[in-house]
C-alpha cells in the first residue's frame, strides 16, 4: 500500500519522487465528528508523509478529496481563539498601513473562514473578497458583512474573480495553502488575480518547527504540505514568482509567513537568505534528520500510552481538553480511546455531543471540565497552552495537572 515508509509517489509540485519517511497509520477525516448513534462506515486513509528528492517539498503520500474535509458542517472557527483574533486583526492593520494604500485597494483572502481578518478590512472601507467553500463558516463571514465566494480557490475561480473584480493588491491566506494539494492551480490562480506589483502572502506551519518540537500531530489530512523556505522558493520559481520575504511567527506552534511577488518585481529581504542558510546548516531536508523525527515520534507514542495506562491503573482521572483536528492524529496513531481518556471538553458547540473521528471519544461542553475537575488534563490544543492555562487557573488551584506531549511527554 502506498504510504508505508520507503514507498514512493510523484511530487504534486514538480513531479519528482517523494519517499515516505513517517507512517502514522490508518486515520479518519480529522474534522468528521460523529453522532454516537451513527453506525455507518467511516472514511479512513493512510497518513504517511514524505519528501520530494527534487524540490524538497514535504507532503502527504495520499490525497484526500477536498469535499470530504471542507463541507457544510465544517466545525472550525478562526475567531474561537482570543489570541488568534488579535493576530488576524494585526495582519489586517499591517496590510492597511503598507500594501493597501492606493486609490482603490483590493485584497483577496483564500480560506477566509468566518471572516475574522476581513472584518477589519471591511470596517476600514477597503474592497475585499474571501474564498470559503465550507458553507457554515462562509455564512458566518457574510453575517459579519464580509464579501465571500462560496467556492474553492483555484485557477478557474481566481480568473473569474479577476474578471469581475479587477487585480488584487494582496492575496492572503492563513493555515490554508498547506491544505491544498493542487498548489500548481493555486499559483496559476494567484498569477491571474494579482496586480503586477502585488504580493501573495501566506502563513502555515513551518517544517523546521514541526521537526524541532516533534509535533507530529501537525500532520493530518488537511495539512497536505509542510513548507520550508527552500521548498516554497522552489515552487515559486516554477510559476514565475519569487520568495521576497519570510517572517517567523509564534502562533500554532511555529509558522512562517511567506511573501511572494512576481519575479524581479521586488528585492528580496535579507531574512530570506538568512532562513535558507539556517535550514541548510540544520540539515532540515537531510534524510537522517527526517528519520530521527520519525524515531522520536514513536517514542512519544510509547511514552504517552504508558503514562496514561499507569494513571488509569493508579486510579487517577484523565480527561482531554480541546477536540482539535490534530488530536485525531494523536489519538488514532497512539490507539487512545475512551478507556484511557473518557471524554474531551471543547468550546465548539458543533462538536459537543458527538464523538471524535476514529476513536469515538465523547466530546462534552467546557462546563463538564469542572464537574469535578480531573486529576490530569491531556491538552490537545498545546499551541494555545498559555491562553488555555490562563483561563483554567481554578483547575491548577484544585490540584489539577496538565499532561503535555510536545516536544516530549511531560506534566505541567
Automatic annotation (TrEMBL):
<feature type="domain" description="C-methyltransferase">
    <location>
        <begin position="250"/>
        <end position="407"/>
    </location>
</feature>
<dbReference type="GO" id="GO:0032259">
    <property type="term" value="P:methylation"/>
</dbReference>
<feature type="domain" description="Methyltransferase putative zinc binding">
    <location>
        <begin position="11"/>
        <end position="70"/>
    </location>
</feature>
<protein>
    <submittedName>
        <fullName>Class I SAM-dependent methyltransferase</fullName>
    </submittedName>
</protein>
<dbReference type="Pfam" id="PF08421">
    <property type="entry name" value="Methyltransf_13"/>
</dbReference>
<dbReference type="InterPro" id="IPR013630">
    <property type="entry name" value="Methyltransf_Zn-bd_dom_put"/>
</dbReference>
<dbReference type="GO" id="GO:0008168">
    <property type="term" value="F:methyltransferase activity"/>
</dbReference>
<dbReference type="Pfam" id="PF13489">
    <property type="entry name" value="Methyltransf_23"/>
</dbReference>
<dbReference type="InterPro" id="IPR038576">
    <property type="entry name" value="Methyltransf_Zn-bd_dom_put_sf"/>
</dbReference>
<dbReference type="InterPro" id="IPR013691">
    <property type="entry name" value="MeTrfase_14"/>
</dbReference>
<dbReference type="InterPro" id="IPR029063">
    <property type="entry name" value="SAM-dependent_MTases_sf"/>
</dbReference>
<dbReference type="Pfam" id="PF08484">
    <property type="entry name" value="Methyltransf_14"/>
</dbReference>
<keyword id="KW-0808">Transferase</keyword>
<keyword id="KW-0489">Methyltransferase</keyword>
Amino acid at each position: 500500500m502506498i504510504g508505508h515508509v520507503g514507498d514512493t509517489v510523484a511530487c504534486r509540485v514538480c513531479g519528482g519522487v517523494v519517499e515516505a519517511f513517517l507512517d502514522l497509520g490508518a486515520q479518519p477525516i480529522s474534522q468528521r465528528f460523529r453522532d454516537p448513534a451513527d453506525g455507518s462506515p467511516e472514511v479512513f486513509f493512510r497518513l504517511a508523509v514524505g519528501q520530494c528528492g527534487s524540490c524538497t517539498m514535504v507532503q502527504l503520500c495520499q490525497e484526500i478529496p477536498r469535499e470530504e474535509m471542507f463541507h457544510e458542517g465544517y466545525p472550525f472557527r478562526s475567531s474561537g481563539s482570543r489570541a488568534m483574533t488579535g493576530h488576524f486583526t494585526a495582519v489586517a492593520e499591517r496590510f492597511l498601513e503598507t500594501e493597501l494604500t492606493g486609490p482603490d485597494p483590493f485584497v483577496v483572502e483564500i480560506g477566509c473562514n468566518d471572516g475574522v481578518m476581513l472584518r477589519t478590512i471591511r470596517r476600514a472601507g477597503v474592497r475585499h473578497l474571501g474564498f470559503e467553500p465550507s458553507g457554515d463558516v462562509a455564512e458566518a463571514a457574510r453575517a459579519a458583512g464580509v464579501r465571500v465566494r462560496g467556492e474553492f480557490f483555484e485557477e478557474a475561480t481566481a480568473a473569474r474573480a479577476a474578471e469581475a473584480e479587477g487585480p488584487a493588491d494582496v492575496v492572503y491566506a492563513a493555515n490554508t495553502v498547506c491544505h491544498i494539494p493542487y498548489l500548481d492551480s493555486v499559483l496559476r490562480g494567484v498569477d491571474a488575480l494579482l496586480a503586477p506589483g502585488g504580493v501573495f502572502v501566506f502563513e502555515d506551519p513551518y517544517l523546521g518547527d514541526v521537526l524541532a518540537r516533534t509535533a507530529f500531530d501537525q500532520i493530518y489530512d488537511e495539512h497536505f504540505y509542510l513548507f520550508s523556505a527552500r521548498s516554497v522558493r522552489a515552487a515559486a520559481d516554477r510559476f514565475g514568482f519569487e520568495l521576497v520575504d519570510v517572517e517567523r511567527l509564534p502562533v500554532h506552534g511555529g509558522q512562517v509567513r511567506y511573501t511572494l511577488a512576481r519575479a524581479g518585481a521586488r528585492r528580496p529581504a535579507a531574512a530570506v537568505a538568512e532562513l535558507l542558510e539556517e535550514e541548510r546548516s540544520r540539515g532540515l531536508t537531510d534524510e537522517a534528520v527526517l528519520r530521527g523525527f520519525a524515531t522520536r515520534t514513536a517514542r512519544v507514542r510509547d511514552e504517552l500510552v504508558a503514562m496514561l495506562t499507569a494513571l488509569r491503573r493508579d486510579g487517577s482521572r484523565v480527561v482531554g481538553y480541546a477536540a482539535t483536528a490534530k488530536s485525531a492524529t494523536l489519538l488514532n496513531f497512539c490507539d487512545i480511546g475512551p478507556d484511557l481518556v473518557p471524554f474531551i471538553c471543547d468550546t465548539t458547540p458543533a462538536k459537543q455531543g458527538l464523538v471524535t473521528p476514529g476513536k469515538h471519544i465523547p466530546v462534552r461542553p467546557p462546563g463538564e471540565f469542572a464537574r469535578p475537575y480531573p486529576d490530569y488534563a491531556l491538552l490537545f490544543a498545546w499551541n494555545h497552552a498559555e491562553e488555555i492555562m490562563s483561563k483554567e487557573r481554578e483547575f491548577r488551584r484544585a490540584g489539577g495537572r496538565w499532561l503535555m506531549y510536545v516536544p516530549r511527554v511531560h506534566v505541567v
